[in-house]
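Before going further, learn to read the protein records used in this course. Taken together, the tokens spell out the fold as the letters spell out the chain. A record is reproduced here so that you can trace the correspondence yourselves:

***
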Amino acid sequence: MNVFESLKKVFSNVSQAVLTREVSEKELEEVLGELQRELLGADVAYEVTLMVSQAVREAVAEVRVGRMQDAKEAVRRRVEEVLRGILSASAGVSFQRVVGDVVRVKGLCVVVFFGVNGAGKTTTIAKIGYRLREAGFRPLLVAADTFRAGAIEQLAEHSKKAGVPVYVGRYGADPASVGFGAIQEAKAKGYNVVLVDTAGRMHTDSDLMDQMRKIVRVTKPDLKVFVGEALVGNDAVNQLREFNDKVGIDGVILTKMDADAKGGIVFTVSNLIRKPIYFIGVGQGYSDLVEFDPEVVLKKLF
């Protein structure tokens, strides 16, 4: 089952319930209440469920006054309009094109990745390095997570398998200094994209955020990307909110969308920060990274 199948069923059910016959206001409220519960269960944020409910209400009104004859089409058009607006920040956005534009102007694009441990951040960075290398860029991976045991070795192993060079510091070193050193090495050796891995956990949340702010201040990244696990739903949303508040996020990558993820998270994330979702992760292979396309998502829903 594709990840958006449950959402497609929700929208199909509400169309049938509301529009195959004339419904009273009380019946409409009951249907919309059930719609909201179903959407919340699919990791759609409460604010978004209200927007979708209002869209359905407007579709019903259009049919009642005769502006729309096709009831199903009225719902589809109104709901799709709302969802397209929510996903609009991702429309026509290509991570690779953004990186390429920076490289053409500055000669070097620095990307710093944020996210908690377990979300697949390090693996995702390797996937992006592989993707950029295949596209003709000269990427350099940077192991700036000097806190988590095994983090440096993990990225170094990915470096070998993906065929992308890596710059490593030592455990306990200042991550901002590691990032700065990597940028200097990239300039000296002709790399044109620097992909910086960062810690996802420290002694306290305040320590982590202080470190992230310092990394941003020192490396001056062109892009700050949040990597979140789609499976954890609202937890990923709360993580994104905190990182965005502290360092400012330019875009998002959602991992593990091939597992038992609920498709509603793409709308929740998009509505939260109004920044693009660059990729969704759909497997463990280095090519298992899919560019996020809002129109593909909408076609799967209706």
